[in-house]
Amino acid sequence: MKEIPKRKVGRPRTHDRNKTLRIAVESYWREGVHGMSLNEVCRRAGVSKPSLYRDFEGEDGLMTAVLDRYMQEVLKPAWELLESNLAPTAAMRLYAEGLMVREDAPPGCLMAEMMINGDQLGPGTHALLREHMKEHVRRFEKWVQRWQEQGMVIDEVPPPIAARHIASLLVSLALQAHRGGRPERLRQHLSLSLRCYFEEPLYPY
Question: How much is the pTM?
Fold first, then answer.
């Protein structure tokens, strides 16, 4: 009698986790946390909800992975501007432009969108968001202090206060850009708001 081969035990892999995560990042970033349901993410990614739950252990796990991917691919390269030797006004312009005009992604900042929709985030996403925001402000504080010591940022405002102020201005800029704000007007507003830190205007007009 011919022996029937045994079937391998294990869950079938019928989709690509990285593809699902990439689509989720773009969807939450483009539509906003409030405008994107888990069902719609599944539809766009072409996966079932049980499959998504297996890979990410639920919506909170998915959004935590989304935020972590966003940090690795978007925020860390932006933070490198703060560690470069670019003059502070040049670095700030590049940072701001990345929030307003992007060829490969929507304008705005996914982390900023999550901040203002905190009531829709799970505990894991909340914790990671707080961690990233603290790191965000810490990097700006080091940046302000470095350029104050070199006389290129006005030192009337202590670095911790300046860092929180600048970070909040950039969050506001990102939210306005995501909602269709005109880059030219956003540049003017940011330049006026940062006059207390720089001897020269951020955007010369």
Answer: 0.84
Q: Look at residue 62 and tell me whether its pLDDT is greater than 60.
A: yes
Instruction: Give the 3-state secondary structure of the chain.
Output: CCCCCCCCCCCCCCCCHHHHHHHHHHHHHHHCHHHCCHHHHHHHHCCCHHHHHHHHCCHHHHHHHHHHHHHHHHHHHHHHHHHCCCCHHHHHHHHHHHHHCCCCCCCCCHHHHHHHCHHHCCHHHHHHHHHHHHHHHHHHHHHHHHHHHCCCCCCCCCHHHHHHHHHHHHHHHHHHHHCCCCHHHHHHHHHHHCCCCCCCCCCCC
Q: pLDDT at position 130, please?
A: 94
pLDDT digits (tens, 9 = 90+) for 154-170: 988 999 999 999 999 99
